[in-house]
Design goal:
Length: 334
């Protein structure tokens, strides 16, 4: 069995900054409400006419990650792409990356686990490396939410939260068994699928039906029972972090850097206080980008690393919770 280690990181967000005040011109909302309930000050939304999509932004982040790893596109053996906002219903974004980066005909898969997408993607890549099947796996998380949000007062409970962006890393084989991904822990509970969902278009409710339906049909916009999701998130975050630490005979005091999925600053702060982490033991950037779903952890990890907040041998904990419900953690010795 081999260990896997992150050897290159990259991120990309669109230039277009959308402030809370700008949102208040589109819908009945305000900066105070958004900041108080979520911590978000602004987010990036792809501007009209831009070429950016989940795959395009993912490719931009991936190029940086491959470069930082000191590799070339020809060194990559496999692509894992996490998104809930793919360019096409099918095929997935992973195969687009193979083409956009002009890579050899390597395998590519998409992971559809929403806010936990990056955790699932990293864990999947880790298994391929552990078994010896692949040496260098490109892992991407990217989302283009903004074109699919209900930007009227009706959708304000969801649309103010989400932002666009992408992050990527190269996960590589290491001979050092004490370094890299120590373990990953994945969970799901499908009975709560309808608490955070985009229902259509589905084969049951396809586009012609949607076109004929009335304005009451909001099934193609994301729906979230925010309070219900929040209550489950704080419990599951805590559980899955403890599960990961216990599996490695570690405890919360051992955490050097905790990077939570950026769902809500209040959720991150709840977990921070529960585990008695100081401000320099957690990294949040939801204030600048909102919730970028499968991209949020990898964008935050990239930023934290580039700011020098993660050092050699640090214990880095990643954790996420979201639609499905799905949740998970990855414990890394950097
Ligand atoms: O990343 C995937 C996982 N996602 C999460 O973990 C998100 C979890 N949930 C949350 O973060 C929070 O529940 C929200 C931020 C989504 C909402 O905060 P909340 O404190 O749970 O608010 P609420 O939904 O209970 O709404 C409170 C009030 C309502 O008005 P009434 O019924 O009290 O009159 C809403 O209509 O706030 C109103 N409201 C807004 N007001 C201004 C909802 N959205 C907005 C808005 N601006 N954008």
């Amino acid at each position: 069995m081999y260990n896997s280690k992150i050897i290159g990181l990259g991120s990309y967000v669109p230039d277009n900054v959308v402030t809370n005040d700008e949102l208040s011109k589109m819908m009945d909302t305000n900066d105070e409400w958004i900041q108080e309930r979520t911590g978000i000050k602004e987010r990036r939304w792809v501007s009209k006419g831009s070429e950016d999509t989940s795959a395009v932004m993912g490719a931009k982040a991936a190029k940086i990650a491959i470069d930082k790893a000191g590799l070339t596109k020809d060194d990559i053996d496999f692509i894992v792409f996490a998104t809930l906002s793919p360019d096409y219903y099918f095929p997935g974004c992973g195969v687009q990356i193979q083409d956009m980066l002009d890579m050899p005909t390597i395998g590519a898969i998409d992971i559809r686990n929403q806010c936990s997408g990056f955790i699932y993607a990293l864990s999947t890549a880790d298994q391929f490396i552990k078994t010896g099947m692949y040496k260098n796996v490109l892992v991407i998380g990217a989302e283009y939410h903004s074109n699919g949000l209900d930007k009227t007062t009706r959708g304000r409970g969801v649309s103010v939260i989400f932002g666009d962006g992408a992050g990527a890393c190269v996960l590589s084989r290491t001979e050092d068994n004490n370094k890299g991904i120590l373990s990953s822990h994945l969970h799901s509970q499908g009975k709560h699928a309808d608490k955070l969902i985009v229902k259509s278009p589905s084969i049951k409710h396809w586009v012609p039906e949607i076109l004929e339906s009335t304005e009451e049909d909001t099934s193609y916009y994301p729906f979230m029972d925010g309070t219900f999701v929040f209550k489950h998130a704080v419990v599951r975050f805590s559980e899955v972090i403890m599960e990961g630490l216990a599996a490695n005979n570690l405890n919360p005091n051992d955490i050097d850097m905790f990077i939570p999925h950026q769902a809500n600053l209040r959720i991150s702060q709840f977990v921070q206080h529960k585990f008695k982490l100081k401000d320099d033991q957690i990294y949040n950037n939801i204030m600048k980008y909102g919730n970028t779903t499968a991209a949020s952890i990898i964008i935050a990890l990239t930023e934290a690393f580039e700011k020098g907040k993660i050092k050699d041998n640090d214990l880095v904990v990643l954790a996420a919770f979201g639609s499905g419900f799905t949740w998970g953690s990855v414990i890394i010795r950097w």
